[in-house]
Amino acid sequence: MRWLNDYVKADMPIKEFVADMTMSGSKVETYHKMSDPINNVVVAKVLKLERHPDSEKLWICQLDAGREEPVQIVTAAQNLFEGAIVPACMHNSTIADGTKITKGKLRGVASNGMMCSYAELGLTKDDFDYPVADDGILILNNDPDVDSFRMGMDICEALQTDDTIVEFEITNNRPDCLSVLGLAQEASATFDIPMNYTEPSFKGVDGDITKEISVSVENTKLCSRYMAALVKNVKIGPSPKWMARRLRASGVRPINNLVDITNFVMLEYGHPMHAFDLRYVEDNRIVVRNAKEGETLKLLDEMAEPVKLTPEMLIIADGKKPIAIAGVMGGEHSGIMEDTTTVVFEAACFDGVSVRRTARKIGERTEASSRFEKGLNPVNAEKALKRALQLIEMLGCGEVVNTIIDENHSEYVPERLKHDYKWVNEHLGSDISENEQIEILKKLGFGYENGEIIVPPTRIDMHRACDVAEEVARIYGYNRIPSTIPKLSSQGKRTPEQIFEDKVISLALALGFYEVMTYSFISPKDYELLRMDEKSRKSVVLRRPLGEDTSVMRTSALTSMMEVVRRNWSNRNLEGRFFEIAREYFPTGENQLPVERDVLCYALYGNGEDFFTAKGVAEEVMAKLGLKNVVYTAEKNNPTFHPGRCAKVTVNGELIGYVGQLHPEAAANFGVNAEVYCATLSMEVMFNNADGDVKYTALPKFPSTYRDLSLVCNEDVPSGDIVAVIEKTAKHLEAVRLFDMYKGEQVPAGMKSLSYKLILRKKDATLTDDEADAVVAKVLKALENIGVTLR
């Protein structure tokens, strides 16, 4: 909050700040004071030191702690002296690790508190820009602000560690808010407080950077802008306290002034930077290029092994070797050393997708890569670089050469959006005047000219009129917009395909099936278990599967259905009926989307289940869906099914699918010791041929008559062929049903007897016996043409 207040004086209560920022679109996750749980620790001055009468190592100290009388504390620290300014814990105080400090006695002498080391205040040596003792009490006499310290002053206030930390949840479309300036802009608009911001600038010293180093960008698609600046006579040292405190408050460990400046600018402007020691840039050349096969790079991360670079990775190289991975991390020798004297500052804009892929591949997701991968604008690179050079001069840690190398290939043009304030109001259901909308947009940093909104370069999320409406709404206040009923031109409803699918599900449930849901990705070994042919095993392969068992997209829903059957059988469920509207995937070519097909897949096993019940389920479904001209043909060449108990199902000559007994070997492969009957039926084909119109038929006025025919034919003649002839030939036929099949002594070898009941009825009169006999005679004559005779 101290940092934010440099740009926006948000001096309201913290609860009000976080509540209003959340309501305006910058969601606050949590907040806390940096000094928690430190309490009742004050600045004190040592007035007098004397040895403890009963110990050679203990000192009795009299301290001025801003009280009416000196406070006596006994300590074993050996680095104290009279006049030392120290942090002192008073009676009933708390230090950083939560330890409570109370008064007591040490070897009989009263001690009314404790003096602290920097560690007991939750700090490290990097938090100070002057030497502090590793052992002993923290001595504050060398602090640059010591003259402003008052005895009894809260130590966190004195050391500027009483800051409040606010943590935001930043969405991927707002990388501008991954910066102090971005959040300051949001706070400025939310609370209507003007921004205190001026463009960064630096003076520099005369010089020509191109005489010291050259820059070339070979891949301008992945690097739209690369800027470099030179700093000579660098003085490496600790950062000033204000900078170190702000970095630590942001979760970044202070290292030294040069490194801290790059981190400071990244947090302030949201644009990552890097600094190279010129000594390690061979040939004084910087080349932005793709890595070459076989190149490696040891990163700044001390624990990491050298990274193997691949040609799709963008790197920063010198004249001979890689020195950094663009947008991710610098190499081992690209950092700042204690003896560094000349530094090259880099501010660039790299392609977000390339950075994300590279960071993921090498397993190094950094603060820099997390910003680049969301998309940064090349315009901000210049501002970030100038801010870094400004800080160099402000801290006096080097001489900035006043010329800059700028390889700019971005061709950036500010986006302009037409502003229609009436449309915004219609879209929001609000009544916000045009001038008020324009003022809101200007508070957020947008320009306005001739009815057009000029989008600032940091706002990569602004492209459409609805984006403008969102900006207006969140700053105006959602709670101020009245609730209205949406005006819809049409209401949403289920598509015909969805209605059809619901009907199929209802039919399956009515037939006693349980609906299951399975994964679409399977193991390629399942194809072998199912005895599928090689052509049917060609699948879409997942690039990053969870494992081999889920590495391909199924081409047959039966693979997943048999996993359900196996699980139930292994749990001693000796009968079951299961179905799923499942999706199958068929590859079409490399880097192309597969063809997807929905099927009704069902399986049944157990007592009383056979081929005819499985086929009967299909027939019932087809009949209820209104499919006409459905034909079941014996299928002997499908290796997944039993060769004598499988039917190919077609409608008007178009294949619907297959129904039959799963091949016994396939069932055994899945560990099921039972006959399993199953089917896969195309939802698309059934939908295209379904007749949803229900037609009323009056009850018959005239009686029916029937004739039973016992026929003899070769064993290989399908009953369906016989039925087809009967249906085509028999006049006044209402229904034909097979009611018996016989093989035995009365039937010649290689032959079988099939018995059918023919139900006949005339619509306009009673059918006479002579007419019925004539129908039968005509049927028998037609059957003789396919080798079927009356028994």
TrEMBL record:
InterPro entries: aa-tRNA-synth_II/BPL/LPL, B3/B4_tRNA-bd, DNA-bd_dom_put_sf, Fdx_antiC-bd, Fdx_antiC-bd_sf, NA-bd_OB-fold, Phe-tRNA-ligase_IIc_bsu, Phe-tRNA-ligase_IIc_bsu_bact. Mg(2+) binds at D461, D467, E470, E471. It is found in: Cytoplasm. It catalyses: tRNA(Phe) + L-phenylalanine + ATP = L-phenylalanyl-tRNA(Phe) + AMP + diphosphate + H(+). Its EC number is 6.1.1.20. Residues 35-156 form the TRNA-binding domain. One of its GO terms (biological process) is phenylalanyl-tRNA aminoacylation. Binds 2 magnesium ions per tetramer. GO terms for cellular component: phenylalanine-tRNA ligase complex. Coiled coil: none annotated. CDD domains: PheRS_beta_core, tRNA_bind_bactPheRS. Pfam families: B3_4 (PF03483), B5 (PF03484), FDX-ACB (PF03147), tRNA_bind (PF01588), tRNA_synthFbeta (PF17759). Residues 700-791 form the FDX-ACB domain. Residues 412-483 form the B5 domain. One of its GO terms (molecular function) is magnesium ion binding. Its cofactor is Mg(2+). Keywords: Aminoacyl-tRNA synthetase, ATP-binding, Cytoplasm, Ligase, Magnesium, Metal-binding, Nucleotide-binding, Protein biosynthesis, RNA-binding, tRNA-binding. Belongs to the phenylalanyl-tRNA synthetase beta subunit family. Type 1 subfamily. Tetramer of two alpha and two beta subunits. HAMAP family: Phe_tRNA_synth_beta1. This is Phenylalanine--tRNA ligase beta subunit. The gene is pheT.
